[in-house]
UniProtKB/TrEMBL annotation:
CDD domains: AKR_PsAKR. It holds the Pfam family Aldo_ket_red. Keywords: Oxidoreductase. One of its GO terms (molecular function) is oxidoreductase activity. It comes from Dokdonella fugitiva. This is Aryl-alcohol dehydrogenase-like predicted oxidoreductase. GO terms for cellular component: cytosol.
């Protein structure tokens, strides 16, 4: 397993991390993802560690905390062998302060997560979303206090706009507080919006991408084909409404290209889609999920080899939208590539 620095920090993470959204199976969304119990989680952790994958990602809202609890039980007695990444900000209770990135909510959320995880520290903590109703100074200073208290080691964000992240980094720099080194972001062959603003920001500011849903919310598994109905066992039946929008024609172009490269390489479609991501700028780690051991082992096969430049170019072309820069000012900036080139 290859390890990379997480952004511009000294912290190294495996290029593949394991997402524990399948642990617990509570609620419509997470029930569609999976319902792994403690025994199943222990086995999946075993497989990950045997492959050198040591980072496990969760969040307080995953199955209403059950994901963190099951992860904590699965790593009990081997905390020193794993890296834990988790998140908070979304509503986690009925109270007026059970949501957001206020000092009140973050302190309570971290303490609750530590209890569920059975740990006294979190390796990487990320805000799950931007809270526009809490001053950025309050949020960033609170996280810095938690770092200084030893409860958190590194900080990141998720689902932020470019200005959200840049203003937060500027605030941290101005006060000498701990800054964000990770951006847990949606990025896939059928969802390349990350490249327009967040990737250039990551390059400039040293923020590494932790990629979630690298298979386009379950659409790049190899089971979806042009002119065929959605498979009966697809998780999309229960979760499509929660996921990112998809251009069907772009999806089919990408799947066609993946099929061709799979035939050339003998690799699976998910392996190729993940390997493409690992060759993109700023990507520190790709978060993979699995309902069972076989699915996990398949995804682990995405590392240890690389697509050729020609294969990468084929996927780039197939996944490119008809209008490469659909929003202003991106289409305008594309005309000034001489001094303001796109990142990829």
């Amino acid at each position: 397993m290859e390890y990379r620095h997480l952004g511009r920090s000294g912290f190294k993470v495996p290029v593949l991390s394991f997402g524990t959204g399948t642990f617990g199976g509570e609620g419509k969304l997470f029930g569609a993802w999976g319902n792994t119990d403690v025994a199943g989680a222990k086995r999946l952790v075993d497989v990950c560690l045997d492959a050198g994958l040591t980072m496990f990602d969760s969040a307080d809202v995953y199955s209403s905390g059950a994901s963190e609890s099951i992860l904590g039980a699965a790593i009990k007695g081997r905390r020193d062998k794993v890296l834990i990444s988790t998140k908070a900000t979304f509503r986690s209770g009925d109270g007026p302060n059970d949501v957001g990135s206020s000092r009140f909510h973050l302190v309570r959320a971290i303490d609750a997560a530590l209890q569920r995880l059975g740990s006294d520290y979190i390796d990487l903590f990320q805000l799950h979303g931007f809270d526009a109703k809490t001053p950025i100074e309050e949020t960033v200073s609170t996280l810095d206090d938690l770092v200084r208290a030893g409860k958190i080691r590194y900080l990141g964000v998720s689902n932020f706009s470019g200005w959200h992240l840049m203003k937060s980094l500027a605030t941290a720099d101005r006060h000498g507080w701990s800054r964000y080194v990770a951006n847990q972001t949606y990025y896939s062959l059928i969802g390349r919006d990350y490249e327009w603003e967040l990737m250039p920001l990551g390059i400039d500011q040293g923020v590494g991408a932790m990629v979630w849903s690298p298979l386009g919310w379950g659409r790049l598994t190899g089971k979806i084909r042009r002119g065929r109905p959605l498979p009966e066992n697809s998780r999309l039946h229960g979760s499509a409404e929660f996921g990112p929008p998809v251009d069907d024609e772009q999806l089919y172009r990408v799947v066609d290209a993946l099929d061709e490269i799979a035939a050339d390489t003998g690799r699976t479609i998910p392996q190729i889609a993940i390997n493409w991501l690992l060759q993109r700028p700023t990507v520190s780690s790709v978060i993979i999920g699995a309902r069972d051991e076989e699915q996990l082992k398949q995804n682990l096969g995405a590392v240890g080899w690389n697509l050729t430049p020609e294969q990468v170019a084929r996927l780039d072309e197939a996944s490119r939208k008809t209008t490469a820069y659909p929003y202003y000012p991106y289409w305008h900036q594309a005309g000034f590539a001489e001094r303001n080139p796109p990142p990829v």
